Amino acid sequence: MNDDQVKGRLTDAKGHIKEAVGKAVGNEKLQSEGLADQAKGTAQKTYGDAKEDVKDAVKGR
């Protein structure tokens, strides 16, 4: 597991928490920030996954 995968998962989790808190307190801005963090985290996690796939493919040669 590489840094991008870890950071992406943490950012995604943070986004889920922000979204839930935003919903609970009726704060649409916080809720939107949570959704944005989730998207950012998913993108970073996907990038990290791709890096691992490439690294594994190179090792397999």
TrEMBL record:
UniProt domain CsbD-like: residue ranges:
4-56
InterPro entries, per this entry?
Answer: CsbD (IPR008462), YjbJ_sf (IPR036629)
Q: Which domain of life is it from?
A: Bacteria
Q: Where are the residues of the annotated region Disordered?
A: 23-61
Coiled coil spans: none
Record's Pfam families? CsbD (PF05532)
Q: Which family does it belong to?
A: Belongs to the UPF0337 (CsbD) family.
Q: What is this protein called?
A: CsbD family protein
Which species does this protein come from?
Aquincola tertiaricarbonis
